[in-house]
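Q: What structure does this chain adopt?
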Amino acid sequence: MTYTSSARQPDPEPLPTWTRGAERLPGGPESSAVNGAVNDSNVVPITAAHTARQGASRHADTSLPSPETSAKGKRSTPTAGKVRADALRMLGCVRIATVRQMASVITAEGSDGRSYVRRAMVELAELGLAETNGKHGKDQIWNLTVAGQKALADGNELPPRPKAGTGAKAVKAGFGPHGLAVTDTILAFGGRDHLTDWQVEVNHAIKETGLSFNTDAVLAWPTKTSEVRLFELDNGSMSQARLAKEVWDYERYAGHRVWEGARGTIGGTFPFWQRHRYTRSKTFPRLHVVLAGKAEHLLDNRLQALTADVRGIAIAVWANTLPRLQRGEPWYEIGVDDPYRRRERYPEPVGR
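A:
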């Protein structure tokens, strides 16, 4: 079915097709030292600093290593230790995945490396570093244990997230398909390249207003105007009204302002997110909404409905279906960033 609506396709922007050692992030990665989010104490703020250690090269490679190539130009067989390490790193980023998903990243493109990954996961399970708590179809769903998270942290491979969950409870509760769809979205958007720049289930909260929601995935993508991209996935499990509300919650978060100023001065108001979360960003991060979990013609209908439900929203919103994203088809722009309209729409805080 062909999707047609009032949503317009944004100007062409290449999906991340970076190659190892030569990222092509717009603007290039920039190191940043960002203050902790005042009301987001259960997560580490997502910043460019997560993927570029201090003193690192501007073009440092943050992706999972590509399968090595022999002198004859053939892909070499991955060693057991390397596969185990890559599986740990991947699960540390995406939280849950199947062997098929891990093999698509860890082993050579175009080859079926599931047997290597399956053996590695069995070994990690025997070591108490990984476990499976459910299935999706015939595929087992894997996640790290607490010991696996600690091993990854001890290796200093990823930015620390002391309170990050393992994903085990979500899988046991039956939410595995949603998590796997998030993993599919991450793989469709960037594949192996810069996989370690992702974090999943990132909380955004404003204590004063009671607003709190979890973003399914956040990609550290430093540009001249923004530090990250936000990703929200609907796996076909929520109503159209709830999906629209979740998108509008991002505008409410972006529109909240805080008053700052020393005593005895007039002071002024500033966007909460810019003062306490994404302090290196000039514009509110773009929200990418991905629709999955239903037949493609039904996803097209939901995309049309979402376009109508968020008409007039004052943040940048791009939307797509997961099948289209996996085929490399362009996004639909259904919201445009407008800080002036946001300021008119949300009341100013009262100063001292």
